[in-house]
Amino acid sequence: MALINIDGDPWLSDLDACERLSNEIQSQLVARNRENQLSREYSSISGHVRVRLKQFGSELEQLNKKLGYISSSLTAAEAERRQRQVEALQSKLVQLQRQFSTVEASAERASLFASGNNRLFDDDDDDPALIRPESSYTVADLRDQRTRILEDQNEGLEALSKVISRQKVLATQIGSEVDRHNEILVNLADTMETTDARLNRETRQIGIVTVQDSTWGYWTIIGILAAAIIIVAIL
Fold first, then answer.
1. Quick one: which of 45, 79, 107, 191 could link to 32 by a disulfide (CB 3.0–4.6 Å)?
2. pTM of the model
3. Best CA proximity match to 155, nearest among 105, 109, 110, 100
4. In whole angstroms, what is the distance from residue 175 CA to residue 180 CA?
5. Cβ–Cβ < 8 Å for 60, 18
6. What is the largest CA-CA distance in the chain?
7. Are 45 and 103 in contact (CB under 8 A)?
8. What confidence score (pLDDT) does residue 128 get?
9. What is the DSSP code string of 6-36?
10. What confidence score (pLDDT) does residue 127 get?
């Protein structure tokens, strides 16, 4: 199932496709658990799930790369929200791989001991008599399967390590943002205190000027009256 762009936000469409694929794999694992571990149907579903898991990992990697391309056009909060959605799907992939590998290992053990022989394979264990005639497995198939299980587990652990590393980076970035915001708040508080002091000083100066303006008229009138008195006295 390739990622297809449809009307709207292509990235969100791809995200929905990955979520549907995740749910499909989970349903197939549930269906596989209902089958006999030595049956042909169980083996068929296992092969299908293995392909789907690899597809899920590939599409999830594409989704994460596309987010990196478009993150500059998103707000910081939206980019962070989408990154968390990707990390949730990465965690889901790891869980599905573990679930698949755990049951696969159980099926392998069941096949190994199906003949009633409780010893492990030695170098001489290629004897077909150790495999049940009705089983579709051969010794080579079991060894290949064991190799694939180990590879899937390694891929799952690597994906989990990337998720943890990404979360550590995000936590560091959030801490840096908080520190920067605290510095901004401190600078803002200092600026507000300085502005408040200047406002108080300007208010006092305006009060002084207002008082001076209000007494100037009185002194003018007094001067005019004094001049009038002197003129009358002379006359």
1. 45
2. 0.45
3. 100
4. 9
5. yes
6. 153
7. no
8. 39
9. -SS-HHHHHHHHHHHHHHHHHHHHHHHHTS-
10. 40
